[in-house]
Amino acid sequence: MKKFISTLQDIWKIDELRNKIIITLSLMVVYRLAAHLPLPGIDPTQLSGINDKTSGGLLGLLNAFTGGAFANASVMALGIMPYISASIVVQLMGIAIPYLQKLQKEGESGRKKINQITRWLTIGILIIQAPAYIVSLPSLGIPESAFLLGRGPLFYFSSILLLTTGTVFAMWLGEKITDKGIGNGISLLIMIGIIARFPASFMQEATSRVTQSNGGLLMILIEVIIWLLVILASVLLVTAVRKIQVQYARRTAAGNIKDVAGARQYIPLKLNSSGVMPIIFAQALMFVPGLLANSENNTLKSIGISFTDMFGFWYNVVFAILIIIFSYFYTAITIPTNKMADDLKRGGGFVPGIRPGKDTAEYLDGILSKITLPGSIFLALLAVLPAIITKFGVQPGWALFYGGTSLLIMVGVAIDTLQQINSYLLNRHYDGLMKTGAKRKTTV
């Protein structure tokens, strides 16, 4: 604890890092305050119905990503998710559209153009999602009396405009955090929205255990221990790498005329190279079967109903299979083994025992395929773990923190942010926050 306090003091001593953290926290507070601003014309005291509907299931997951703004009928009800959807679409389009492929190779200027395309696509998605959200409010449990000024054209126009503005504002906040603050702004906004639901979910679970004599404090302690173990497993999944040994025959040392022969390095191939993207892709597809619940055909309707329960058996079986498939798909399109092999060859490096060029690319691709299988299975198990946990009497809201997208986003963003803070500390010769980086303390 003493070392942790000392590290916090070191962080505060670095003016640039301190200012970045203050800016990040300030913008996150602004985002959370905006999430509690209800749409004009809606009585916030009559939203108990929508809160009940979003206590579990797919709507509960959407509500978790927006930090409760979805259930509050807030101006931030759609959160940052339309931007995430647009980013995924642009990324996938980059595989097939030559223009986007060209932009990806143009460096910073190309990245700015791709960001601009993503922003416009976000607005396009909002034009569809915002009206759909407003129209669905009565079916989500909001009574007619909650619409203080009725549901006329003025209400629809103003609400759609505010929902669009809210998401664009959230997108701007995320980009400002990335530019002026610390960490990835968009990811931090999603994480803070998820964490915002944590206290209420935990208190609901604790209350049900104590008041209903359902295990009491001992059961709560067991659940917390299991939760911490799941977090540990998630950290291992995010950080695990397979090191491919690389050797450079001749490399010139900086500031030295001599050549350094036989320098050895390695290529780190992640066990889970695709991160949470397979879960997000699979989650998006799992909304489609649920639409069949409104079908007039009894068979299709029963299938649709079974897929509206995110804690159901068949839902999670299909969900896990899709995650494994998308893990391979996303890894294949994001990890260019051919380019890695070419870059290695141009740099004078080679994998011991493997010929440079095509053979190296095939070798890297084979290793990547082998490690992706256990990584994808582990990812699928974490994704369906909330459904397993609920079978032991855990409340659905609290169960969502035992795995799935929520937990992996929190773990991934936390690790990424800590690594950035750690790099600032190490560059200034302070002990880092992370154990592996605490060996650079020197005297100046």
TrEMBL record:
Pfam families: SecY (PF00344)
Spans traversing the lipid bilayer: 21-39, 80-100, 120-142, 154-174, 181-198, 218-241, 274-293, 313-335, 377-394, 400-418
UniProt membrane topology term: Multi-pass membrane protein
Subcellular localization: Cell membrane; Membrane
Keyword Transport carried by entry: yes
InterPro entries linked to this entry: SecY, SecY/SEC61-alpha, SecY_CS, SecY_dom_sf
Alphabetical keyword list: Cell membrane, Membrane, Protein transport, Translocation, Transmembrane, Transmembrane helix, Transport
Family: Belongs to the SecY/SEC61-alpha family.
HAMAP family assigned: SecY
Quaternary structure note: Component of the Sec protein translocase complex. Heterotrimer consisting of SecY, SecE and SecG subunits. The heterotrimers can form oligomers, although 1 heterotrimer is thought to be able to translocate proteins. Interacts with the ribosome. Interacts with SecDF, and other proteins may be involved. Interacts with SecA.
NCBIfam families the record matches: 3a0501s007
Function: The central subunit of the protein translocation channel SecYEG. Consists of two halves formed by TMs 1-5 and 6-10. These two domains form a lateral gate at the front which open onto the bilayer between TMs 2 and 7, and are clamped together by SecE at the back. The channel is closed by both a pore ring composed of hydrophobic SecY resides and a short helix (helix 2A) on the extracellular side of the membrane which forms a plug. The plug probably moves laterally to allow the channel to open. The ring and the pore may move independently.
The protein's name in its UniProt record: Protein translocase subunit SecY
Species name: Namhaeicola litoreus
Lineage per the UniProt record: Bacteria, Pseudomonadati, Bacteroidota, Flavobacteriia, Flavobacteriales
Gene: secY
